[in-house]
Design goal:
Blueprint (H helix, E strand, L loop, with lengths): L1 H20 L42 E6 L2 E7 L4 H8 L3 E8 L3 E5 L11 E2 L5 E5 L4 E5 L8 E10 L3 H5 L5 E8 L2
Antiparallel strand pairs: 1-2, 1-9, 2-8, 3-4, 3-9, 4-7, 5-8, 6-7, 6-8
Length: 182
């Protein structure tokens, strides 16, 4: 019986020592070298949000995202930094299909839910690109009259297009990519 207890104690001590080997150190995070200005990608190359060595996302406000279907395009300027805007940019490029919704917006389903935890809700206005959390889709608001603040409506950016210009995207395969970085 004593032999079993000693064997069990030795096994337990070994497991604890091995488990300790996999715990990361508390030292500084490794620094990923950033390209010099001469090595910056051209504006037509998608640029994912960068992360600093401290692990916090750098600003993505000012990034221009282009939605293109055939010869038509609409640019959206990301105008705030949030988990949702960073995750949206990180998923680009992608292809979506837009459709009309309720005489208020053109919507498109994303391939997956955005990480929006910590992103503020909004009171949408005409010209807003939003992310609607329950349906995991994007919305180009063109008639936001009577729509109030909602924690489920996450503001991503602003666009400048008429309802007629947006209608040209309905049912079309639409490429979404970063056109210019901040």
């Amino acid at each position: 019986m004593r032999l079993k207890k000693r064997a069990l104690a030795a096994t337990f001590a070994l497991v604890l020592s091995l488990a300790g080997c996999s715990i990361p150190s508390k030292g500084p995070a490794p620094v990923t070298p950033q390209p010099s200005s001469a090595q910056q990608p051209s504006p037509s190359v998608p640029v994912a949000p960068r992360t600093s060595s401290a692990g916090s996302a750098e600003s993505v406000a000012g990034t221009v995202v282009r939605f293109t279907a055939g010869k038509e395009s609409v640019d959206v300027t990301i105008d705030q930094d949030s988990p949702a805007t960073g995750d949206f940019l990180a998923m680009l490029p992608l292809t979506l299909t837009m459709k009309e919704f309720n005489g208020r917006e053109k919507i498109a389903d994303l391939p997956r839910e955005l990480n929006y935890e910590g992103s503020p809700g909004s009171d949408p206005e005409n010209g807003d690109l939003i992310y609607y959390t329950p349906w995991h889709n994007l919305g180009f608001y063109y008639n936001a009259a009577g729509i109030g603040y909602s924690d489920q409506t996450i503001h991503l950016g602003r666009y400048d297009a008429t309802v007629q210009e947006l209608a040209r995207f309905e049912g079309q395969k639409t490429t979404v990519e970063i056109a210019a970085g901040p």
